Every structure is written in C-alpha cells, then in structure tokens.
Amino acid sequence: MRLKDLAEHLGLSQTTVSRALNGYPEVNEETRKRVSEAADRLGYRPNASALRLATGRSGAVGLVTSASEILGPHMSEFISGVGSVVTNRDQDILVTVVNSLEEEMAAYRRLAASKKVDAVILHSPTTHDKRAKLLMELGLPFVLHGRTDIGKPIAYLDIDNQGATERATTHLLDLGHTRIALLNGIKGQTFAEHRELGYRMALKARNIPCDPNMVVNTPFTDELGFRIAQSMLAAPNPPTAFLPGSMMTALGVFRAIRQAGLTLGKDVSIIAHDDVFPYLNADNMYPSMSTTRSSIRQAGIRIAELISQILAGKSSADLQEVWPVELVLRESSGPAPTR
User: Fold this and answer.
1) Is 191 helix (H, G, I), strand (E, B) or coil?
2) Among 16, 98, 260, 333, which is least packed, fewest CB within 10 Å?
3) For 67-76, 77-86, 237-246, 275-284, which range has the lowest pLDDT when averaged over its residues?
4) Distance CA 310, CA 77 (A)
C-alpha cells in the first residue's frame, strides 16, 4: 500500500492524505480521522527513512523520568498509551532516566543539542515549572501532561483534579462524614495543589474547618497508604473516610482498615482516584471501590496525538485540554458511622 494507492482509495489528493497523517492543522478533524482509520485498516505505513530525509526530523519523542517512576504502574500505563500511537507512525520513544532535577535539566539540554528527538513529553509539573521554562528557551517542542503557569501558552492535557476532589469530598459530606482524610500527592505538584483546593472548597461550602492533620502529602504507594491510614485510625479522633490519591494508596488504606478490625463501606469509607489499571479493577474488589475515574493510558494516547499536531505547526495555545473526571460510586463509600 503506497501513499498514492491510499489517496486513490479515499478519493483525496496525496498532499491532503500526507498532511492528514502528519497532523497538519489545515486538515479538518473529520478528514484526519477518516484518513487515519483507512491507513490502519489497509495497513499503510509511511516510509520512515524517506519521511525523515524530507522533514529533517529524527522520528523520536523524548521522555525524561526517574528510575522509580519508570518502574511504577502509572508510568507504565502512560507509556503504553503513548507507544500505541507513535508505533503506528514509525516513531520511537527515547526514554532518559535521571535521579534529580539537575540531571533532568541537563538531559533536556543534551536532547536539544543532539537533535535526537523532535519533541518531548513533560510530566508531573509543579505550579511554576522550571523545566517548562527551559524547554521554551531551548526551542524544543513539548506537550505537558498536567498544567503549569510560566506566563506563556503551553500545549497541555490535564484532568479536572480540583473538580474531581471537590465532588468526591462533597459526596462524603452528604453522607454525614466530617472527618475526611486526603492522602494527596507531593506538595507543589500542580495536580496535588488542585486536589487540595477542591477538598478545601468542599469543606468551606459546609462551614467545616480544614484540619491540617487530615491532609498528607506523599508519593502514591501501597506501603505509605497503609502506614498513614494505620496511624490515623489509631488516633483519638480518627477519620471516618479517606480520599486516597491513587488506587495503589487505596490498597494500603484498605489493609489498614481490615487490620483495625473495621469494615470498609460501613465503619470507614473510601473514594480513591482510579487510573483504570487493567490488572486492578475497582469493580472486582470486595467490597467494590468508589472512585474518581480517569484513564492514564488514554491520556498517553491523546498526548501522543497532540505531539503530532504541535510538530505539524499548530499553536500551543490551541492545544490545551482539560478532561472531566467521572465520580463512580460503589460499595466502599457509605453513610458516616454513628459514634
């Protein structure tokens, strides 16, 4: 299947088909989707070597991450999503593993100088991210997974973390809970700041003061979730509900609840943030887990698509998306216990 054959099959010019496959902004979304679906169905693949010679591009997308993140479930799901798109476009993912912010900044400078990648995926941003500023200065195209404020328009994909946590907190308040623990991400990261803001807004709307002992900022792991929940449940005035920031943390909280001889959904409630892991289904847990649901794999897919669009010349200001988050209520969230 050649480009000419694909164009004739679709009744379009070769130029239109080529621009549609490469994400050029002048091709409308309907045509782009039609061409992409036909290319997949008919097995068309552009000649990677010829494309690189014609465009002067490397055919690779860069991702810089830490050793702990690259081995974690969230990053593996995200990369799976990115990979499902770039592989079909004969592109590669160049992963660089670092141990500190200084090493990460140096890695971006090397990538820009070597021209080994055409663009970078930037993740886990802080509210005023130095890495985004550096990439702007280097002129290295990038799409951000999350949001940051550096005073200039950036291409990004984020979810409504503030709205998700506000809805989950409000639901627990409606059930009579007033001692609600927020097991949040690392302080300073944008998503964690947005989630805490949503939590505080929900409490404020009910004139309930925010107890600083009910908000904890840590990485998302089963072990930390267990230890934190165990300590909180042993306190004189323990929480009656938890908002773990990830399903991994929720598993640790669940263990602590069981160890304390309490019943999930009756004595203590949980609404977790669920990244839709294929090997960890909230529906199949016992009891089933209430969640604010968002697929990190789908986020990876969409960010890879946005990378193609920014490389095709689309403005960063036109590539900014915030996805809503669904609140899925199951058995782990119930009325506050009477004590």
Assistant:
1) helix
2) 260
3) 275-284
4) 23
